[in-house]
Amino acid sequence: MNKFHGTGVAIVTPFQADGQVNYSALKKLIDHLVDGGVEYIVSLGTTGESATLSKDEKKKVWEFTAETVNKRVHLVAGIGGNNTYETAAEIKAFDIAGYDAILSASPHYNKPTQEGIYQHYKALAEVSPLPIILYNVPSRTGSSISAETTVRLAKDFNNIIGIKEASGNFDLLNQIFRDKPQDFLVISGDDPITLQMIAMGGVGVISVIGNALPKQLSNMVRQCLDNDFKAAQPMHYKLIEFTRLMFAEGSPAGVKEALKHLNICGDTVRLPLVNISEAGASAIKKQLEIIG
C-alpha cells in the first residue's frame, strides 16, 4: 500500500498554559496516534497552528516530531505561505531527516489567478527535496485550486504526488478523479466526507478528528479502502456529531478540548484563537462517551 493510503492526522501542537510548546504532551499525542494505527502524521499543518509559531519553534517541533516518531509511521511537514519565494526558500532549506513529503496549502489572502497558483507550485516543485502534496482549502485561503490546475500540476511535475482536497465541491472532485493521472493521490481534507471521497476513488484522509479518535477513524478508513462500505457506515454515522463539534467553534480549539478530556494534552490555543465555550466542551465530552 502506498505510504499515503489510509489515515493521516494533521497533528495539533500542544501548548503549556503560558503558551510555550509542551513537548511532553506532544510525545504523548504522537504515541497515541501511532498506537491508534494511523498510517502517517502531518506536522505543523493548519491544525498545528503553524501560523502562530516562529521559525525556531517550527524547526524544533519538526525535529522533535521526527525523533519521537522514529520511523514508526510516515511523516509529512506542512510548509506553505503566500510569499512564493519565501516558501520556496523554506522548503529548500528544510531538514528532511525522517520526513516523506511536504503538504503545501495554496496561497492565502492574495487570491491569485489559476496561473498564479500554477506558477507558485511550479516554483516549489523545482526546489523541493521531497514529494509535494497540494492542499486546496478555499474556506481558509480565499481561493480554490481548479480541477484543471490540479490536473495540470499533476501531469507536469512528477514530484507533485497528490492533493489534500478540502473544498467540499463534488463537481470539482468529479473532474479531478476523471482527468488525473492514475497514480496521483486524492486525499480527503474534510473529515465528514471521507467515506464518500474514498468511494469516488480517494486514498484516505488527512484528518483533524483523528487526533482524538485515531483507532476508530483509521479502522473505518481501512474498511472503506477494502470496499467494505457497509462495515464502515456505522462508525461514519457515529462520528458525524463529534466531527461537527470539532469545527463548530473553530479548529483546533474543538479537538484540543477533546484531547483534554482524554488526558492527552491541554486545551491551550494561541491568539487569535480562543478556547471553546462551556456548552461546547460539555457536548464534546458527551460525544466522547457515546463513541467510547
List keywords for this structure.
globular, TIM Barrel, 47% helix, single chain, alpha/beta, eight-stranded parallel sheet, 292 residues
- The value of Rg in angstroms is 18 Å
User: What is the fold named in CATH at topology level?
Assistant: TIM Barrel
Low-confidence stretches: none
Report the sheet-strand fraction. 5-15%
Overall domain count:
1
Return the CATH class: Alpha Beta
Structural class: alpha/beta
CATH superfamily grouping? Aldolase class I
- How helix-rich are the residues, as a percent range? 40-55%
What distance separates the N and C termini?
Answer: 29 Å
CATH architecture: Alpha-Beta Barrel
Q: What's the story with the biggest beta sheet?
A: 8 strands, parallel
The strands making up the biggest β-sheet line up spatially as 7-6-5-4-3-2-1-8
- Helical region count? 13
GO biological process, one term: lysine biosynthetic process via diaminopimelate
Subcellular location: Cytoplasm
Pathway: Amino-acid biosynthesis; L-lysine biosynthesis via DAP pathway; (S)-tetrahydrodipicolinate from L-aspartate: step 3/4
Catalytic activity: L-aspartate 4-semialdehyde + pyruvate = (2S,4S)-4-hydroxy-2,3,4,5-tetrahydrodipicolinate + H2O + H(+)
